[in-house]
């Protein structure tokens, strides 16, 4: 991170099932920050589930809502922002988050991701005949975007608590002017 950046927020990016929500909540608690989840906010504003938005309006409409929301976040302070897995694939989103947030990517292998999401049904992109292949393909396509984070943390062998500890450490380090 270059020295001209002074992150007042922390944004968690990463694929579905990497623990952004659970880690993000814990990090917010430990830093005494507010917690904001882009998926939750989109759903509560629309009064609809993400699945419903994808099904009736299409993915492009959902991505537009994401982009509008991200643009509003510049006004936030002391907030942990947990983002939907596809949000960084729109370069405008990372460009808009970077001036105010340290971007931390939670990473996991496709095998671990599948293990974590296999019994969940709320993600439209994984309602696929072959979810394992879908995860592998999407993750490979998105890797260049995730790698634009300031910090990458592998969660394969870390508990939620351990991952949160790492995130807090990296944030404090960045705030102290290092990194
Ligand atoms: C998506 C991930 C989901 C949600 C939507 C699309 C994606 O968020 O935004 O279903 O494109 O990877 P989570 O990463 O919180 O599951």
Overview of the structural elements:
There is one protein chain. This protein is of the alpha/beta class and 179 residues long. Helices cover 50% and strands 14% of the residues. The protein contains 8 helices and 5 strands. It has helices at 20-31, 38-46, 50-57, 59-72, 91-97, 110-117, 131-146, 160-175, and strands at residues 9-14, 34-37, 79-82, 101-107, 151-154. It has a 5-stranded parallel β-sheet. Helix 1 (20-31) packs across helix 8 (160-175), helix 2 packs across helix 4 (59-72) and helix 3 (50-57) crosses helix 4. It is globular and about 45 Å long. The model has no long low-confidence stretch (mean pLDDT 95). The structure holds shikimate-3-phosphate (S3P).
Provide a short characterization of the protein structure.
50% of the residues lie in helices and 14% in strands. The protein is α/β, with parallel strands linked by helices and 179 residues long. It starts with 8 loop residues before the first strand and ends with a helix.
């Amino acid at each position: 991170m270059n020295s001209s950046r002074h992150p007042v927020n922390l944004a968690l990016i990463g694929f579905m099932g990497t623990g952004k929500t659970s880690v993000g909540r814990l990090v917010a608690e430990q830093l005494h920050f507010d917690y904001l989840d882009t998926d939750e906010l989109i759903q509560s504003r629309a009064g609809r589930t993400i699945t419903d938005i994808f099904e009736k309006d299409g993915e492009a409409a959902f991505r537009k809502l994401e982009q509008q929301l991200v643009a509003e976040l510049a006004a936030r302070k002391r907030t942990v922002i947990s983002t939907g897995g596809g949000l960084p694939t729109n370069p405008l989103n990372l460009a808009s988050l970077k001036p105010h947030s340290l971007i931390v990517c939670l990473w996991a292998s496709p095998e671990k991701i599948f293990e974590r999401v296999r019994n969940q049904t709320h993600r439209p992109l994984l309602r696929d005949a072959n979810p394992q292949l879908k995860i592998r393909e999407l993750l490979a396509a998105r890797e260049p975007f995730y790698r634009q984070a300031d910090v990458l943390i592998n969660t394969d062998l870390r508990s939620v608590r351990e991952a949160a500890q790492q995130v807090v450490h990296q944030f404090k380090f960045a705030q102290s002017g290092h990194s």
